[in-house]
């Protein structure tokens, strides 16, 4: 591995000058990638696979999902103290989890879990046996109807179900002030009467009924923001809390584009028009541009791109390496970027981290 430094998932280069000094600079064969990200390090290597890391506003905590060695073959949610490197599991350890978030100011974590599914343990055992058998199956996201959105304290205690509705409830994040939660759900397929066409579509593709919702932080006052028969998901608030960015899939599920809207669902605006799979958008803290992942360079080759918040400029490529680079997130100060990549010998997803060149991003996008 010549292109990055592997560091154990201890300590953190963002907060440790010694670790930054020890980290090697990213070596690239194309100049484009190094324009934006330098001093790249691998943050995880002990886990089987890791992904989706997010930061608290004070940059003292990071929450992420990981599969670790043990009796659960699915992701669980972990919290890392960035000042001392201590890691603790905050999800129950039963069933599947996904899509975590850390409260901007309080000691609370948000995540989706199926631990209340009566068959959760049986599904864990079945998955372990499937893997032991050597059976291989193509990757497909699981829209488990037992996914609920929970909050818990930093120890995993005081866990509270915020959704309590049959259907896939996941992909949740708090607003910058912690008062609202945006999330994705296909609950209407379970709670409303669908037309014959919708019912047939849902049976074929359970993601087709997934829309963006918003609710109060305590789970009350739920409001549906999108109204399509395609997958609207992955919502994140803008730094000022006034807008939401998300990705909308085409009805055939083979393409996705980046959209933004006001938090009341108005002024829905398409930002990208790449006619490929563009997803996992995230605002830079400056509120000047959005980073996302797209496979415009090949079906299995996802790269990071940036685009201005109004979608008026041509998107600019950030990474340049075969494989998967996605799920990017900026640190709250906008100076660093963390993302998920399979640029490892095992081709398993792990967390990578680097110094971000905000000035170069503005320059390349011609944004002031």
Mean pLDDT: 89
| C-alpha-based Rg, rounded | 20 Å
**Cα shape:** globular
Structure classification: mainly beta
Distance, first to last CA: 37 Å
Biggest sheet descriptor: 5 strands, mixed
Strands in their spatial order, largest beta sheet: 1-2-25-24-23
Strand proportion, as a percent range, falls in 35-45%
Portion of residues within helices: 10-25%
By DSSP, the count of extended strands is 25
Extract low-pLDDT stretches.
1-31
Individual helix count: 6
List its salient traits.
mainly beta; four-stranded antiparallel sheet; five-stranded mixed sheet; 12% helix; 6 helices; 368 residues; globular
Outline the structure in words.
This protein is mainly β and 368 residues long. Helices cover 12% and strands 36% of the residues. It has six helices and 25 strands. The strands form six sheets. Strands 1-2-25-24-23 form a five-stranded mixed beta sheet. The chain has a four-stranded antiparallel beta sheet with strand order 3-4-5-6, with no helix packed on it. A four-stranded antiparallel beta sheet has the order 7-8-9-10, with no helix packed on it. β24 (336-341) and β25 (350-356) form a beta hairpin. The radius of gyration is 20 Å and the shape is globular. It starts with a strand and ends with a helix. 43% of the residues are buried.
């Amino acid at each position: 591995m010549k292109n990055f430094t592997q560091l154990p998932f201890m300590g953190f280069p963002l907060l440790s000058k010694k670790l930054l000094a020890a980290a090697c600079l990213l070596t690239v064969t194309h100049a484009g990638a190094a324009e934006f990200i330098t001093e790249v390090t691998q943050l995880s290597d002990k886990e089987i696979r890791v992904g989706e890391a997010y930061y608290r506003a004070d940059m003292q905590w990071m929450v992420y999902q990981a599969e670790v060695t043990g009796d659960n073959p699915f992701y669980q949610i972990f919290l890392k103290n960035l000042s001392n490197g201590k890691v603790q599991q905050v999800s129950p350890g039963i069933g599947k989890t996904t899509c975590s978030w850390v409260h901007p100011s309080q000691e609370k974590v948000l995540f989706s879990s199926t631990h209340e599914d009566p068959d959760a343990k049986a599904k864990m055992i079945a998955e372990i046996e499937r893997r032991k058998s050597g059976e291989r199956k193509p990757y497909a996201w699981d829209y488990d109807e037992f996914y609920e959105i929970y909050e818990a304290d930093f120890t995993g205690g005081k866990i509270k179900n915020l959704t309590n509705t049959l259907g896939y409830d996941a992909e949740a994040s708090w607003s910058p002030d912690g008062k609202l939660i945006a999330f994705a759900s296909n609950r209407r397929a379970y709670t409303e009467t669908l037309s014959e066409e919708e019912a047939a579509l849902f049976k074929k593709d359970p993601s087709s009924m997934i829309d963006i919702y918003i609710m109060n932080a305590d789970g009350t006052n739920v409001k549906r923001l999108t109204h399509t028969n395609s997958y609207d998901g992955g919502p994140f608030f803008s730094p000022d809390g006034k807008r939401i960015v998300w990705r909308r899939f085409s009805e055939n599920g083979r393409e996705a584009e980046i959209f933004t809207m006001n938090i009341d669902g108005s002024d829905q605006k398409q930002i990208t028009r790449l006619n490929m799979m563009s997803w996992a958008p995230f605002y830079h803290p400056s509120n000047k541009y959005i980073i996302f992942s797209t496979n415009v360079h090949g079906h299995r080759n996802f790269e990071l791109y940036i685009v201005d918040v109004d979608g008026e400029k041509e998107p600019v490529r950030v990474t340049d390496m075969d494989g998967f680079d996605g799920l990017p997130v900026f640190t709250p100060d906008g100076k660093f970027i963390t993302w998920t990549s399979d640029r490892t010998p095992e081709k398993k997803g792990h967390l990578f981290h680097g110094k971000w060149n905000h000035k170069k991003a503005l320059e390349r996008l011609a944004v002031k």
